[in-house]
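Whiteboard transcription, Tuesday session. T.W. wrote the C-alpha cells on the left side:
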C-alpha cells in the first residue's frame, strides 16, 4: 500500500466523526466507479476507529452499505444505458472485455446470485455491475441484492478492523489473497461447467 493511502488513513484518524462518516460513504461509493480507490481498507480502518471509540459500528456499516450499493447501481446504469457499445475497443479501450464475457457466463448460470456475491469478488465488482446493467436485469431486484452483498461484506471487514486493532493493515494481505483464491475457484468452476456442456453436446 502506497504512502498516499497511508496518508488518507492518518488524515481520517484526525477528522471529527461526521466528516469521517462522510469520507467512508464517499469512498465506498467511489470504489465501485474507480476501482483503485481502497474502499475495503477504508471500511476496515473505520472498524479500527470504532475500537478506539472515535466512531460507532452501526453508522460505519450503514454508510458503507449505502455507498457500495449506490456505486454499484451507478455502474449498472452506465451498462444499462450503453449496452454492448461498451465492448467497442475504439470507444472504450479501458473496458476489460474478457472479464465482461466471464461475468456474462456467471450471470447466465447464477443470475442474481452473482449480484449477491459481487462484494466478495474483489477486482470484479465494477465489471459485474456493468455487465448486469448491459443484461438489463431488473433494477429493483438488482439494487436489493447489491445492498445485501454490500451489507454482509462491510459487516465482516469492519468487524475484522475492530478486532485486529493496531494491526488493521494486516487485513489487506488477507483480503488480497482471498480475492485471488475466489476468482481462481470461480474460473475453474466455469471451465468445468463449459467442459461438461461440451461433452454432453458431443454425446448427443
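and on the right, the sequence the group agreed on:
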Amino acid at each position: 500500500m502506497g504512502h498516499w493511502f497511508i496518508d488518507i488513513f492518518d488524515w481520517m484518524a484526525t477528522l471529527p466523526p461526521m466528516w469521517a462518516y462522510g469520507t467512508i460513504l464517499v469512498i465506498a461509493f467511489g470504489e465501485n466507479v474507480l476501482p483503485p480507490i481502497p474502499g475495503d481498507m477504508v471500511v476496515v480502518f473505520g472498524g479500527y476507529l470504532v475500537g478506539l471509540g472515535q466512531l460507532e459500528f452501526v453508522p460505519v456499516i450503514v454508510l458503507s452499505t449505502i455507498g457500495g450499493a449506490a456505486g454499484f447501481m451507478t455502474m449498472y446504469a452506465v451498462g444499462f444505458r450503453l449496452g454492448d457499445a461498451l465492448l467497442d475497443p475504439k470507444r472504450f479501450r479501458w473496458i476489460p472485455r474478457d472479464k465482461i464475457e466471464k461475468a456474462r457466463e456467471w450471470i447466465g448460470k447464477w443470475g442474481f446470485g452473482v449480484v449477491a456475491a459481487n462484494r466478495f469478488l474483489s477486482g470484479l465488482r465494477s465489471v459485474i455491475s456493468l455487465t448486469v446493467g448491459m443484461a438489463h436485469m431488473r433494477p429493483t431486484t438488482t439494487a436489493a441484492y447489491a445492498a445485501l452483498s454490500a451489507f454482509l461484506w462491510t459487516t465482516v471487514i469492519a468487524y475484522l478492523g475492530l478486532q485486529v486493532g493496531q494491526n488493521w493493515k494486516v487485513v489487506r494481505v488477507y483480503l488480497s489473497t482471498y480475492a485471488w483464491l475466489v476468482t481462481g475457484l470461480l474460473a475453474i468452476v466455469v471451465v468445468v461447467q463449459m467442459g461438461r456442456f461440451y461433452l454432453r453436446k458431443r454425446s448427443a
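Someone added at the bottom: Residues 177-187 have pLDDT under 50 and may be disordered.
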